[in-house]
Amino acid sequence: MRKTLKTLLVAAVGLWAGAIVAQQPTQTALVRLDTPQGALLGTASERHPQVSIFKGIPYAMPPVGQARWQAPKPAPSWQGERLADSFGPDCLQQPYPEGSFFYRPARVSSEDCLYLNVWSAAEPGADRPVMVWIHGGALTRGSGAIETYDGTNLAAKDVVVVTINYRLGVFGFFAHPELVSESPEFSAGNYGILDQIEALRWVQENISAFGGDPDNVTIFGESAGAWSVNLLTASPLTEGLFHKVIAQSGARLDTRVALDRQTSAGPPAINSGVELATQLGAASLADLRNMPGRELLDKAMAAGFRTDGIVDGWIIPAQPYEIFSEGRQRAVPVMVGFNSDEGTTLGAAANLPSTAEAYRARLQAQFGDFADLVLDVYPEDNIRESVLASFRDATFGWNMVTWANLTRHVGQPAYLYYFTHQPPGAAEANLGAYHASEIAYAFNNVQTLSSRGTALDYRLADIMSDYWVNFAHHGQPSAPGQAEWLPYSNAERNYLLIGTEVSAETDLMPDNWAVFDRVMDRRRQPVSD
After folding, report:
1. Which DSSP symbol is given to 498?
2. What pTM was estimated for this model as a whole?
3. 3-class secondary-structure state, position 32
4. Is residue 529 over pLDDT 80?
């Protein structure tokens, strides 16, 4: 990326980048870039000096005070030069418990968190494909600053990478009757999704300055990030904001919570909001907005507040399955998939039934009339294997295969993958290809894995990231010298098997999806209030 690279006297700006340069000077080599918002001072990558990195760029105004639980407003421009060499704060969250599999040291978190980060090796106006990463974390944790999401190695493959923060937990997905009343759209609850949309609008207006093509944007995410990709694909508010999607282990095609009516997923979201307000002793929306953010977060978490996208009639106008079945989603190429051992790090193997009888009783409680059908596919002769496989397929596999299948309604290709490679250390811990294990390979960031990668891991990451990057370039995933990845359809159920080797396969576990088609269809039936 050809910009002015020089040593500048820049400010000591405290805990995070985001202030205009001022105060006590120190010497740092920085990269200057003029953008529609104003001038940025980023850094050059040490690994790939041609890649410039800009961190902590505000895309929206801080959602604090009265702006808590309101749609985001675009960040203003600035005069002078803005230091962009450090990540902004994470959105307010509680870290994973120490000792849990996904634990990482806590970063500064705040309600003032709507920042994004850009990696690019392109010159301004070069029109390189853009890949916008939406992080996972159950919509309650995570950020665009996690080391595994570093975009340097992807940017070195000729794309512009963006990672974003968005509001989480009670700040991002809280609904209440007073919020519905004050909304011009009579909606509430999907503020985190609105943040993601605002970030994509920022991309449209600013990414050319970083060498990106606003007419070739791929959104991609994993777990809750993939849920978000799925909901953005379903939303009528995203027209023209992206042109391809990649979803890794997550979609929301099973029945979801609705704003003001009961579904099989649970009570109306506004009822849950009223219940939380009562538990917190808040008599009004004003009381809730006046509560300190950390106190609100801690109390909501202690109360078990449930966080998810909400069918609100506006951002998500109907159940996502209905939207996709009727061809009302964004007409874009799709790449989706899941991992073979999703449940090993998500608690699915905890408290396993100790006997065949106990296993059958659990299936009866979970699936009712369909328990025998489930038992046929997930037999009792290996309870651990069957519990993990049924959890994987009900939570992830069915959603991804169904998404690939329903893409036919918009006349676009869908590509399905199945990731089975065990990262270093996974076999010894009996984890397999666990949830989120593919991310380091998609980003070509094997060096961020907790155990040292082998030459095979680095080779697989280079191949896998090629497939991802070429999908962003052309809408068709490919990798030099590797298997041709053919589109998925009901007639030709092609998929890419990503294991120790990569191969093109067909007919991924069809009996499993037939069972869950029936289960999910039952759950879509109307529920009386």
Report:
1. E
2. 0.94
3. strand
4. no
